[in-house]
Amino acid sequence: MKPLHELFWGLCLHCPPSPSLNLSRHAGGLLHGCSQVLARRGGQYQRHHHLRRFTTTHQHLTHPYRPSSIFAARRFSTAPVANMADVSGRYESWDQARLISRIRQLEHELDKRDAASKASGAGSGTPSNKNGAGAGAAGVATDGAPPVKKRKKEAKRIDSSRYSTRFIALKLAYLGKRYGGFEYATSASLPTIEGELWNALTKSCLIFPEDQDVVNFDCCEYSKCGRTDRGVSAFGQVIGLRVRSNRPVPKKQEDPAPAAGAEGDDTPMEGTEKVEEEQKEKKPEKAWDEINDEIQYVKVLNRLLPDDIRIIAWCPSPPPDFSARFSCEERQYRYFFTQPAFTPTATTVDGTPDGMKEGYLDIDAMNQAAQSFIGSHDFRNFCKVDGSKQITNFERRMFEAGVEEVKDVGTVLPYLGASAVDGSQLPKVYSFNIRGTAFLWHQIRHMVTILFLIGQRLETPDLVTRLLDVENTPRKPNYDLAHETPLVLWNCVFPGDDESRTSNDAENALHWVYGEADVVENLWSHYREKKMDELLANRLLDLVSRQVQGTESKAKGKRVFQGGHEGKLSGGYVPIAKKQLTPSPAEINDRWAQRKGFKNSDEMRESKNWRKVIKDAKQAAAAGDGDE
After folding, report:
1. Are 515 and 298 in contact (CB under 8 A)?
2. Active-site residue among 229, 362, 386, 480?
3. Environment class of residue 93 by beta-carbon count within 10 Å: exposed (0-12), middle (13-18) or buried (19+)?
4. pTM exceeds 0.85, yes or no
5. Alpha-carbon distance values, 475 to 389, 582, 587 (Å)
6. Where is this region: Disordered (predicted)?
7. Residues 205-226: tens digit of each pLDDT
8. pLDDT tens digits for 244-263?
9. Is 229 tagged catalytic?
10. Domains and CATH numbers, the chain
């Protein structure tokens, strides 16, 4: 057994020794590239370093794609999967959750090693056997000491060269409330959807990265359709990637040995007739079914994913040059809300100047305003501008926009009474539905904010038209952003889909193979759990509402609904036209370019590959700081 310091040698130390390992303290240090594991040995604390999969080279190896001669390009490959990628990993690229998990793993290994050391020490004092070895060394339990357990061998890595691969597409759904977004980021304080996908793909050995601890999808021709933000859910997300396949690797056919007879001798050698007969008697191999004989990707991944992330279907044969991002024709989003939006006051309808209770929304006015979004428009006043992206084109095309009632999902609260419009029970559930080719950063949440202001009759429906007129409104008013949790990426539409605008494009269609009944059973269990939470909260609210004297809020000021659980209290509402204006996109781009050493954004874009210019400048500056 190797000494402990040899197992962990190489781990960078930036923190002083401590008698105990504080997770919250050292996880923060690890996020900046620092790592420390302390082991207690004989009353002395030693620093141990870690050399697992560590390399000082950063050469990125790529392997040319060689499609199988049997199958269409990008569908199957018999090239070794081990050559997918060569990724060098360090702790700098790990997120917080992965670092904490690593610390716990190291602590567990140290505890096991300490226990084994104590057991072996206790066994060393026993009489030796005939071979001179103590009972403890032989693995026999001594008085007062537990038996020494044999160390388990580490799991061997699968030989990826024995497997073929295939390019597939996956359709997945997830509830994003407890996630920091879809895209993986090392600085994320919350787990991400891609991080969970990576764990499932590597544990199931569907992909073979060089280092499983470093999340890098470059090894599997990965692409994604949408990048949802923190807290946003998706019911129709699509990704494309290359994974391990059950398709048998074609056996190499060896050339027959040359005949021993003289050249030109037509006389058959002895025994050749028997060999030829045996070859004829061999049964032909069974035809391989690309669906029924394939790995059950949906079931395998769902066993390893959290309950709020589900693989719904997989596509066995995406079209050539398929990209989940660029092949998508349109994306559909839905933003859900209730009517009333928040707890209404006890004031009667006749007692309000505008004929509406506080907390209720004017759905007709919201629908009227939403129609103005349809078509091609410049949405710079309905998004957040990121200077690092250097976006100059804010025109996007919307195919559909409107507010619709969602049927059969409401839970009745008797104290609200019936709707004054159609007499139905309250509360109701509505959704703002939007379909478009592409969207800007936080675009839908900005659109919903404006619709809620119009629904509360704090603004008029023509506000949307005024904000879309970028000539008269070149700078966005500084208004708040709607809550993220009710937003859902509802569907991603590809050529050939039922909702596709080019539905006759069968050649580029995605033919989905959906999961079995176990997917529905798992989702039912998750739904049942949440339904009980909703039911208990509903009954509690109904019970208390019957006991208190009225429901009128005593809070002073105007409550503004922004999609959250309750209205935001403001002393007095400031109209959008009177709010402070934010910098224009050109000003934001210029400021970011100037911080990177350029005169303005135009000069930066003239350098063409400006990202490489910035990277080279940073490396040159770092090299200059190191010179004496």
Report:
1. yes
2. 229
3. middle
4. no
5. 18, 6, 10
6. 111-157, 246-287
7. 999 998 888 899 999 999 999 9
8. 999 988 776 555 555 554 45
9. yes
10. 4-120 (no CATH), 163-248+290-315 (3.30.70.580), 330-489+519-576 (3.30.70.660), 596-626 (no CATH)
